[in-house]
Amino acid sequence: MGRGEHKTNGGGSAGPRLDIPMAPTLRPTKEEFKNPLQYIRGIRNQGYHKYGIVKIVPPEGWRPPFAINKETFKFSTRVQSINELQRRHIIAAKSQAFSRKLDAFHRSRGQKPPKMPIMYGQKINVFKLYCAVLKRGGYESVTQNKKWKEVGKLVCSKHKQITNLSFLVRVAYERSLLDFETYVEECCEYLKQDTSHLDALSHVCVSGDRVEEKPSNGDSVLVKVEAEELTGSPMKRPRLDGQGEDTELEALDGLIGLTTTANGSHPMPVKEEEEAGYELEEAGEEKVKVQSKVEMISDVNGMDMDFIDHMLPKGAADNEESLNLDEVFCELCGGGAHEDQIILCDKCDKGFHTFCLAPPLESIPTGDWCCPHCITSATDDLAFTEGSDFTVEEFQKMDKQFQTTWFSSKGIANKPTWWEVEDEFWDIVENSDEPCEVFYGADLDSGKLGSGFPHERHGFTGQYAESPWNLNNLPKLGGKYCSMLRHVTDNINGVIVPWVYMGMTFSSFCWHVEDHMFYSINYNHVGNPKVWYGVPSNSALAFEDVFRNYMPEQFKLQPDLLFQLVTMLSPRILKSASVPVYRAVQEEGSFVITFPRAYHGGFNSGFNCAEAVNFAPADWFDYDQDSIERYREYRRNPVLSHEALLCKVCEVDESPVTAASIHVHLKEMILKEAALRQDGLLYAKTFKKVSCTSCNPGSGFGDDDAECSICKQYMHLSACTCKCTPGYSVCLEDVERMCSCDPSDRTFVYRRTMAELEDMYASVLSRLEGCDVKKKMSEEFGKYVSESPRRVREAEMWSKAARDMLRKGNASKRGVEEHIEDADKFLWGGHAMDEVRNLVGELNGVLEWGREISRCLSSARRGRKLDFVKTNELMSASPKPLDVDLGRLEVWVSDSNSLSERAKAALDPEEGKELAFQEVQELLKACNRCPVIPCLLGDLSAAVNTVEEWCGEVDEFLRQKAKPPFSALTSLSKRGLAKLPDWTVLEKDRLAEALYDVEAFEKEAEATTGGRAPTVEDLERLAKAGRALPVMVPSYAEVQRRLEEVRGWLEEVNDVPVEDEEEEGATTELVEDLQESKRSLRSLEERLSQREVRVKALRQHIRRGERIPCDLAGRIEVLRSQLGGLEEGMTKLEERVRNLRRWVREKERERKELERMEREREWERKVDECIMGELHTGKWDEASELLEQGMKASYDKVRLSELVAKIRALVSSLISFGRKFYFFPTRSWGAKKGVRAKRTARRSSRMRTRLRFNNTSGCEFYVSRRVRQQFAIDVQRELTPLVEFEMDWTSWKLLL
Length: 1296
Hints:
Elements: E1 25-26, H1 36-45, E2 53-56, E3 74-81, H2 88-108, E4 118-119, E5 122-123, H3 126-135, H4 139-144, H5 148-155, H6 165-176, H7 178-193, E6 204-207, E7 210-213, E8 221-223, H8 245-256, E9 288-290, H9 293-296, H10 305-311, E10 342-344, E11 351-353, H11 372-379, E12 385-391, H12 392-408, H13 418-431, E13 437-445, H14 446-449, E14 499-503, E15 508-512, E16 519-527, E17 530-535, H15 540-550, H16 552-557, H17 571-576, E18 582-586, E19 591-594, E20 599-604, E21 608-615, H18 621-633, H19 642-652, H20 656-680, E22 686-689, E23 706-707, E24 714-715, E25 718-722, E26 729-730, E27 746-750, H21 754-766, H22 773-781, H23 789-808, H24 813-827, H25 834-861, H26 868-875, H27 889-907, E28 915-916, H28 917-929, H29 937-959, H30 966-979, E29 983-984, H31 987-1009, H32 1016-1027, H33 1034-1055, H34 1074-1107, H35 1113-1172, H36 1180-1193, H37 1197-1222, H38 1235-1245, E30 1247-1253, E31 1256-1263, H39 1265-1274, H40 1276-1279, E32 1283-1285, E33 1292-1294
Parallel strand pairs: 1-2, 8-9, 22-27, 28-29
Antiparallel strand pairs: 2-19, 3-12, 3-13, 4-5, 6-7, 10-11, 13-14, 14-21, 15-20, 16-19, 16-21, 17-18, 17-20, 23-24, 25-26, 25-27, 30-31, 32-33
Protein name: JmjC domain-containing protein
Domain JmjN: 23-65
InterPro entries: ARID_dom, ARID_dom_sf, JmjC_dom, JmjN, Zinc_finger_PHD-type_CS, Znf_C5HC2, Znf_FYVE_PHD, Znf_PHD
């Protein structure tokens, strides 16, 4: 189908009826398609963002495989009521009103309002349940007519999973609504019985929401109270002339005559004669009739809540206990300050700050007010409910069945086009009262369930797994044109990790903008098109105004309705309000991109699987601050911290493209933060720099940022806390609403100073080409970006006092601490406070000097050692920075210096003045006793430890039982000579003696083994001498190896047997018994094998003995003579084995020939019996087996041909039998009435059949369907062994 072309389907229209322009369809080239973010930046610069959405068709050949397994991918769904998408606000208002009246009814009886019924985890809407029962005549009528199952299907989307649905729905109704229904019935019955006191209303006629005045003519006027349709405007309460709403309610309560008993029992109607009644000014002669309950409340889709309100007893809501306002806290922020701005919910009596609400209230509203929690609980059941779980194949099959059923009822026989689905979708949304529920598998986590794109997370590799257009890779693309989300370390579902969407016919995604006004991209993997509608960002405010004007009551209850994603609004309404709307039809294999702040929504024209994710090029920052302000206004938690992300990008992203986009936003953030900190000086007196603003930091991105208790936004740069409420913190924009505590109890915490932010801005400017950073900074910030002249003067005065304190010295510790505390108010500032920061560092050094002196004295008192260098450095300060008592610290430092000189002399002695090791050990003990560690104590101790360790190694080396290698001895000797100081050590002489013994053995071994083959006696003598050495030398190992090799060879040679004995009873002569001959053959073969093994072993021993470097010539000659005898005996044995094998083979051939001749004679006998006798089906198996045996063994051909003829005769007779009795109908086709019609049916039920034998055509005849079925049952049992049947019973092929 070409672009812009539409085909008609059946009787449908030739194109869409919804007159909306199409969004652009872009087809990038392969070169443009390489970098998605660069391409999207290009189309934005070309102005395509003015459409809000665009469709992108990849180049030809780019089509990633669908990586989801349709059989195993199982997902959960949501149930969408399509007919309620645009009218949900009306249903919500009615449901909330009904819930209030129902709660008031139960409270009037002294009862706690019942909880919302739940079935299989789904909350049941009591308003919908009440209306469904009332529409069917009430509880008694539904019970008698057994319609509870029908009611259950309307109110519970999981009705297919519930086996006892009728019982559960009836019980839920009895517990929650039956008393209320009974009460309403009694009130209505009383009004019909006695209405004389209603004459005051005779001039009023109520119909729908209109109030008309009727002339008083003496006749009765019928007052018909009807609930407005759910699709209409809310019902207005009829008022009496000259009276307000309260008077009217009291009057109508009195007219109905309701009272409440003292014990809270069910209120009953009371006669007017028993009551005082009401005197109305304009009472006339006419009487008023009130219709029945079903007439008054006429439809599931219409319920007059004001009528129910009139029927409730007076003071039903007055039974509440009064609350102590001194104990009321805001449920949102947890604070109790600003009591004059705390408003109480009229339903749950909980308190809320007006400025904590979403959006904040400018003043306390008049009349009844419900909190967001109560509104949410009342409207939760109107949101999309949880549906069933499906696999992809099950979901696709279900959608196909639904689409066929729905559109066939609309007269569309074939598969509908997308515009026919569009027309039907909006017709249902705008006009239909008929329930239409569909399933939508939305927001499926691809990280857990699997992505439609190949991805390494699920074991895929290759071109498409690494493609930048793969939605698993796109949010974190790097390079020059990168996504800002690559700096977010968390895998946020739906933002960074794609969501998968399984759509079916009519399933919709309601109007919304993306979180943080991100870009979004959607790819349709498989299935039918998705139809999108988009509104450009420059018309977003106009779009929101249309929404608010269309459903003002719902926005009054839920100001954040546009965040809920549960409401659709027809493009026709938007277009009539001059809001530009564009349509995009996303076919399989194409992308749809939405631009920031572009509202979009749409629906699916059939089954499809799509995948979507967000991304954020650098130009997205143009919208993010607006999204944060929007979150702040509606008190909603953002997905991530805007300030944290902006700072992270500024720190690590070196791209000039990014710098060009973000430097403006960084400047705005710095100026805003500077202004907020200046204003925050009035609300806090303590300032503190922290590494994170959160009390409980997490490991994720932005998890170390606290959340403002009022506006719910992340506080990355700064926050304000108070001692009165630990863990309670607010941002600087809401600090004035924090609490009523004194500023001295509050602490202003900040993560970065303004100087650090200025440096960050300068770093970003340095990435811009041709930018003069100093000039730009001076132009945009001036000399003091965050400082007022007054703060600068105060900082200078503080600096002067600090310099005087440092110059004079001997300052008091308390004075220095107080001066540093005074500097906290300057440290958060910009570079104008750099001198203050430097002086604070120096004053902290002074305090640290005093703390180090105290630690030294305390450590010395506890017996701990003092560091020589550190202690000398502390004592070298002049003058002393602080006025402290040094104690004996000076004496200890002098002793330490003296010992350090002696240690230096010991470590590097002069020539000719060698020290004994014992003297050095005594010096080390004196150094260890000194409180201040001498500077060379570590070197001296290490040298002494080295000598002691070496001496221990030598002693252990010489005493160990297992001899170490000679290399260990030489290594130990060299290490002692190289590392030991020039001290006198006895172990050096012991090592020298061991080395002399080893050298003597080496010379003797070389003389014995060098140049000739030693005898066994020579090797034993050398081995004995080597065992006396303290180490294992290489020559001893070689001698020992040779000796062990000779001994092992001699043992192996002695173990080899030379001759074997003849087995008892074994014969080598040929005998007539074949079996005995075989046994003799096996015995000879075993003896031959054993002799071969012995010959092989002797040969190996001879070769091995020749290679051993030792004198073994005599022994080898003996082995060679033995080998000759064995080889001669083996030759004779081989000849005997060959003769016996030949004789056995000849006897085997004679035996087999005799057996074959016997089998052939037996076969001929059985064939003759079969040919001569009568062949019937009972002997068919035997004849078939004989035929198969004869053909396989090539027996007598004459007998084979006669047997085949006999079998053919049997087949012919059986087929004739079947044709005679089964191939033609034997029953009459019925009475003569309608003969023609029956003949036609008979002809249509037959089919032409040709009978074939051995692929040879036979006669043609007709066979009815019934006859064929009967033939299949009866005759096939006889012919199955002979004939091969095709499935349609139209041809048979003989097996022979």
